[in-house]
Design goal:
Layout (H helix, E strand, L loop, with lengths): L11 H7 L4 E7 L6 H14 L4 E6 L6 H4 L8 H6 L4 H4 L1 E2 L5 E3 L13 H15 L4 E8 L3 H9 L2 E6 L3 H18 L3 E9 L7 H13 L3 E9 L2 H8 L4 H4 L4 H15 L28
Parallel strand pairs: 1-5, 1-6, 2-4, 2-5, 6-7, 7-8
Antiparallel strand pairs: 3-4
Helix pairs in contact: 2-12, 7-8, 8-9
């Protein structure tokens, strides 16, 4: 595959931006530890290199990790914004190729269990800031918690990251099932990660597709397979996305191809963003150390 273009390009996303609507992509998983955050950081970098104003939201509330993957040290985070100690503009930090990060707050248990009103206000906050960008990637938490489902249900596209591990497959199926039955989503992109050498890249996808075909009406698009590669962990540890440190690697090619596919897809998205579920109000959460 040809190298990534560094100059802005005219794409379907640019057209959506002229209509005042960013492309929103939720990157999610059924269980933790499958590489979801690393995938999000790399996809965001590819979109930025394609010339798009790119926002990445760390919605793995209470844990966080995108700041590390992007090599950033935020002064403020979503917890500070929701507590009223900082404006959302204060929390935004710039990463590789102009990627903008809205970081989460590690160690805030109350953020991982927001109530209905708080979740609606968080979605409205993200929707408001998203209007400034062409592409918004949301790194959700793992599992089928309410906040995860809110972000995944309202995104234009969903990338479901799965590994060959039987538990990961089971939990990925559970996520797909919930997305279809509770939010009416018709399709998701399935990206296999940590595939072992010598294994056919469609093996995991076929297993998941077999389950979905028998019990669900959800289309599972094959979004590629990333083989186990120590360079991935090394790049994350150094805070440099692999698409920058190893641009010719098979992993970088898979992630670049997926970003280009999402970029080119001509899905008709609604003109009004369903993330705006509540008025933009000041949300105050318990201070650090207080009982939620």
């Amino acid at each position: 595959m040809a190298g990534l273009a560094l100059a802005p390009q005219r794409t379907p996303i640019a057209r959506r931006d002229r209509e005042g609507r960013a492309l929103t992509i939720a990157v999610t998983s059924g269980k933790g530890g499958v590489g979801k955050t690393t995938v999000t950081a790399n996809l965001a970098t590819v979109f930025a290199r394609l010339g798009h104003r790119t926002l990445v939201v760390d919605a793995d509330l209470g844990l966080a990790g995108l700041d590390v993957a992007l090599g950033l040290t935020p002064r403020f985070d979503l917890g500070d914004v929701l507590d009223g100690r900082a404006r959302v503009e204060d929390a935004l930090v710039t990463g590789p190729f102009g990627v903008t990060l809205l970081p989460a707050a590690p160690g805030r248990a109350e953020l991982a269990a927001l109530g209905t009103t708080a979740r609606a206000m968080l979605l409205a906050l993200v929707d408001e800031i998203a209007r400034r960008f062409d592409v918004v990637l949301i790194d959700t938490g793992a599992g089928i918690g309410a906040t995860v489902l809110d972000f995944a249900a309202t995104a234009d596209e969903v990338v479901l990251v799965v590994t060959p591990d039987p538990l990961a497959l089971r939990d990925a199926y559970a996520m797909a099932k919930v997305l279809e039955r509770r939010s009416g989503r018709a399709s998701v992109d399935v990206l296999t990660n940590h595939l072992t050498a010598g294994t056919d890249e469609l093996t995991v996808h076929r297993k998941l597709e077999s389950l979905a075909g028998r019990f669900l009406g959800l289309e599972l698009r094959h979004a590629g397979a990333i083989r186990h590669d120590l360079a991935i962990a090394e790049s994350c540890a150094h805070g440099v996305p692999l698409v920058l440190s190893e641009p010719s690697s098979s992993t970088a090619r898979v992630l670049t191809s997926l970003a280009r596919e999402l970029d080119a897809r001509r899905t008709e998205h609604p003109t009004t963003n369903e993330l705006a579920l509540a008025p933009t109000l000041s949300l105050v959460l318990p201070p650090r150390g207080a009982r939620p």
